[in-house]
TrEMBL record:
InterPro entries: Methyltransf_11, Methyltransf_Superfamily, SAM-dependent_MTases_sf. Keywords: Methyltransferase, Transferase. One of its GO terms (biological process) is methylation. This is Class I SAM-dependent methyltransferase.
Length: 277
């Protein structure tokens, strides 16, 4: 996506109070009965737990695309030195309110573009970047900025919605995908149009990271469903959440990690920048 202000207008609208800013705030403030919201809350919990377990005293952490600060708030509550940046002033207003409501310092929140941040090179030991790259057609500049910001040996937690989940969650979509694959030699590859918030193929994202020298450390697949037939939901939200949680527990019990790359809704990847001790 070009860097022009016009190109970013849809993103600015999406995360404004006129559109989805209040919804993003509410999904982390209450236990909303929505499978997608539940998956995002679980993503927050996985990210926070990983950073807490793997951080050392004195580490500095950046929440890049911090939104309404669900991750940043938990990190600061645990005493970590964490700052955040987001493109939307409305999301940052919610973030400040969330921090203050828990008696936390509301400073250290910057408004800006994740492709061109105000911090010097090698400023952070950990960068958390949840969902951001799905909102840019060309997210290579985001990866380049993360590379610049991380210290040698630093850790990146990056997440996005998995493009394969809607295929494997709907047998009709799976059949259509298989048929399209068979017809590709005749019809040529299908051209995908860009839409903000799009789902991504994990193979493309991880290849881009590894081309920059990042080294794989860990992966967490989060949430199953929504379960559908020809685009029609099979269950209500409450039942879908319970089923997703049971499937997650089953996969954890039997250590089924690799299939989750293809099946789950949210992909959370952990990479390390080369260098350091």
């Amino acid at each position: 996506m070009p860097d022009s202000d016009l190109a970013m207008a849809p993103v600015r609208r999406r995360f404004s109070r006129a559109d989805a800013a209040d919804r993003w705030n509410a999904m982390y403030a209450t236990e909303t009965e929505c499978l997608e919201d539940e998956n995002f809350r679980t993503r927050r919990d996985f990210a926070v737990a990983y950073v807490l377990i793997n951080s050392r005293p004195g580490d500095r952490i950046l929440d890049l695309g911090c939104g309404t600060a669900p991750v940043l708030c938990e990190l600061r509550r645990s005493g970590l030195d964490a700052v955040g940046l987001d493109y939307s002033q409305d999301m940052l207003a919610h973030a400040r309110t969330r921090l203050r409501s828990q008696g936390l310092d509301a400073s250290g929140l910057e408004q800006g573009d994740c492709r061109n941040t105000p911090w010097p090179a090698a400023s952070f030991d950990t960068v958390v970047c949840l969902g951001v790259i799905s909102y840019l057609e060309d997210y290579d500049p985001v990866l380049a900025e993360i590379d610049r910001l991380l210290k040698p040996g630093g850790t990146l937690l990056i997440s996005f919605r998995n493009a394969w989940n809607p295929v494997f969650s709907d047998p009709v979509a799976l059949a259509r995908r298989a048929l399209r694959s068979l017809l590709t030699p005749l019809l040529g590859p299908r051209r995908e149009s860009f839409a903000i918030g799009r789902f991504l193929d994990f193979r493309t994202v991880t290849a881009k990271l590894e081309a920059r020298g990042f080294r794989y450390r860990d992966f967490f697949g989060i949430g199953f469903g929504p379960f559908r037939i020809a685009g029609h939901k099979l269950f209500g939200e409450r039942r879908a959440i319970r089923l997703s949680q049971r499937l997650m527990a089953l996969c954890t019990r039997f250590s089924l990690r690799r299939p989750l790359r293809w099946l789950t809704d949210v992909s959370l990847w952990v990479y390390r920048k080369p260098g350091g001790a």
